[in-house]
Amino acid sequence: MSTDSPDVVAPGRHVWEFARTGGVDQVLLRHGQDIARIGELDRKLWVALACPVQGLEFDSRTLALIDTNDDGRIRPPELIAACEWVCRELRDPQLLISGGDTLSADDIAEASALQAECRRILRIVGKDEGAALTLEDVTGRSELLASLRFNGDGVITPATAQDEAMRAVIDDIIRTQDGVMDRSGTKGIQRAQAEAFFAQAHALVDWQAKAVSDDATMPLGEATLAAAAALDAVEAKIDDFFARCNVAAFDPQAVPALNPAAAAYDALAGSAIDTHSPALAALPLAPVAPGRTLPMAGRVNPAWADALAKLRERAVAPLLGTALEAIDEGQWALLRERLAACRRWLASRPPTRLGNAADTPPERLQTWLAAEATVLDLLAQDEAEESHNKRLVDLERLLRFKRDLYRLLRNFVSFEDFYARRGAIFQAGRLYLDGRSCDLVVRVADAKKHAMLAGLAKTCLAYCECTRGKDKMTIVAAFTAGDTDFLFVGRNGVFYDREGRDWDATITQMIENPTSVAQAFVAPYKKFIRLVEEQVAKRAAASEATAQASLSSVATTVATADKAVPPATAGQPAALPKLPGRIDVGTVAALGVAMGSISAVLVAMFTKFVDLGPWIPIALVGVVVAISGPSMLIAWIKLRQRSLGPILDASGWAINGRMKVSVRLGGSLSRMAKLPHGAKRVLKDPYADRSSGWLVGLGVLLVAGAATVWAWRSGWLEAHLPQPAQPAITAPAVGAPALTPNR
Fold first, then answer.
1. Each residue of 625-635: pLDDT tens digit?
2. 568: which of 67, 372, 535, 554 is 20 to 30 A away, CA to CA?
């Protein structure tokens, strides 16, 4: 027999099982090999091709582990990759069918590195290596890692070090390089920060070594740094003073302009004088005059007196040999020349984040460099644990996939959970409203956008805003059974989510569609009754308004009768108000003619109807079909088109089939209120309408009359009612004359 025959399966080809559900062939996943070879299944046979990560009744952590590209959607390649990975890591893929969040080391494939990691975690949590590892053990392991000295996150904290000197060095690195948070929640350092810190320390040591090797750079030793700092503080101001004096020597007429004007002192005198005020500091160091020296004390600008005193003490006295009271421009140039080498060395200081020269003495730098090897070794020990952490994440993934992956496949590759009424992952809960419960409830992000596509589902949909305290969400519920007469915007109900929490639900938008053919049958009559009621109400309102206007007019006439009658003239009686006349005879005749015509038409119709005889039932059926037939036909067509796909597509899914919602399935998704089995009902309703009895009687009489007329016209009465006895007629004797009737 040829291997191309449909009854023969080629070697190595997997045999799939399918079931026809919802108008679509859906694959049945019953064996571990079905999951292991899910990538071989034609994607045209998948029920869904994408689904969102948010808004599903499913473990979000598991979905995040499947969503490897972090785009917030699950697609077939990601799901296939997850299935193939978990089947490689497990000894037997059938474990996915059994589910559960426990796993022993023997359940893991021997070639997998996770088997040894499983035994290692079991030892850490205090279990025997042959025991079952739970998901809680793995997630608890994450908390345990945070408390370990080396937790594998590549970050060490001061607590990682075992002596105070090392803790101080790590604190210095955190302070100067901005630390990062460790898994334990404590601030620490990573390798990049430690290497940057020690590189800056080495550069600073090399920079300091240049100054030590050159005596000209530090003529005063370590005091040279203080002298250079004192000179830097007043250099610009002293240069400004000698420049002003040189201009004054060039032209004595410029002296008044080079010194502060009287207005500047008036501005200072207007308020309390602060020796550190910017206005005072802007004035020259001393009065400007041709060839004048700069006093170091005495008549100097108070804002700069302290700075000049430090310059005299730290630079002028040590470098010029004596504490001069004043210096000229030549002495100032000599002072700058002797500190020039130190200032150039200070300017060449490498850019670091270790503070200035005073904060980083050579002894401290040597302490830092001595701790370099130890700090890097601590980082290496912590980083060595990272491989265990990666395997720990994979172990968590394995446990979660074992528990959840099979369920996700039953809600993605097929919709088995939905059609088996086990609760699909897109069903948000149950809505109670209008005497029924609705199980096809989906979370909605934007009701207006959702309704634009969901209307193609040909299903009666109610969008509800649900509130629970400060929490809010929007849902859409499908009403697939019962009538929709009392479903309208503003009606309230109660929604229970999958966790059993109750929410206040209010209808905000409706998409109306028939729920059954029976509802469509009575819909025209209900519409007719509503139209009649509306017209009667309008006519009654109009009549009431006319009557009110007439009564108001009569009341006004009566109230003003004494004023409306003109005064009587001499010899003439007073005129009386004109009373309304009697009913016009013509009007009465017209009404009689109209009623007669209507009666004649009704009698003619009834006569024609009675003349139908045995065809009366068929005529009645024809009238009913003419009235309810179009509505029932439209309902039947829409019910055949009722689908789950557009509802889910509008929520971010990519549904591959139509996923029909049949009448039988719809009846299970929307359950009507029913009395419990064995319940007893008290038939007498003390508050029932008493006027409804005559309507029932009238209906019974009409039915009985119609049945009697039909029985009479069809001859049924003559055939079944007893007939009066007829006189017996005997045959005449032979030879006797025959009797003939009288003519």
1. 777 778 778 87
2. 554
In this prediction, residues 386-396 reach a mean pLDDT of: 82
Q: What is the mean pLDDT of residues 170-180?
A: 85
Of 238, 229, 412, 250, whose CA–CA distance to 332 is shortest?
A: 238
- Encoded amino acid at 207, one letter: W
- pLDDT tens-digit series, residues 117-135: 899 888 888 888 889 999 8
DSSP structure string for 227-272: HHHHHHHHHHHHHHHHHHHHHHHH-GGGHHHHSPPHHHHHHHHTS-
Q: What's the rounded Cα separation, in Å, for the pair 485 and 743?
A: 75
Q: Return the half-sphere exposure (C-beta side, CA atoms, 13 A cut-off) of residue 317.
A: 13
Does residue 193 sit in helix, strand or coil? helix
Residue with tokens 């049949």: 662
Burial 39-52 (b: 16+ CB within 10 A, else e): eebeeebbbbebbb
What are the tens digits of pLDDT across the range 662-691?
888 888 898 888 888 888 877 677 776 665
Q: Is the pLDDT of residue 426 over 50?
A: yes
* Distance separating alpha carbons of residues 265 and 195, to the nearest angstrom: 57
How is residue 352 written in tokens? 């670091």
At residue 702, what are phi and psi to the nearest 5 degrees? -65, -45
Measured CA distances, 568 to 562, 564, 565, 649 (Å): 12, 12, 9, 90
CB atoms within 10 A of CB 397: 20
707: tokens are 């049945």
Q: Structure pTM?
A: 0.62
Checking if the pLDDT of 73 tops 70, the result is yes
Give me the amino acid identity at 40. Answer: E
Which residues are CB-neighbours of 405 under 8 A, at least 6 positions away? 35, 62, 82, 83, 86, 96
E strands within 439-482?
441-444, 460-468, 471-479
Q: Which 3-state string (H, E, C) describes 85-151? A: HHHHHECCCCHHHHCCCEEEHHHECCCCCHHHHHHHHHHHCCCCCCCEEEHHHHHHHHHHHHHCCCC
Can you give the length of the chain in residues? 743
Asked if residues 69 and 76 have their Cβ atoms less than 8 Å apart, the reply is no
